[in-house]
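Repro:
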Amino acid sequence: QVQLVQSGGGLVQTGGSLRLSCAASGLTSSSYAIGWFRQAPGRESEFVAAMRRPNGATYYTDSLKGRFTISRDSAKNTMYLQMNSLKPEHTGVYYCARQVNQTASTIRTRDRYDYWGQGNQVTVSS
């Protein structure tokens, strides 16, 4: 059984930083992607970033390039989302999720992810 357990998040002022973690277990496939999505109040879920395994290719939504960084600790089977220079518009619940048989064209598609973490609230105050 695949499980994704998230940690991190919280309240930060504009310009601050936060790091989210996504610890995975039960991953039997060597080829998969871990993606991050944000659900902001009153808005649809949107793709934030993703990393493919095993090649480590990363993908970001254009507006977050250079501000957010996705990384991994293979020994801990954990993926991280480092968020810097945060703005109030980055507020929302962040979810990590897994996708198998991923391609560059499906990596941003929410419906292609099958297992999801519990979500972390990120609130950026002005």
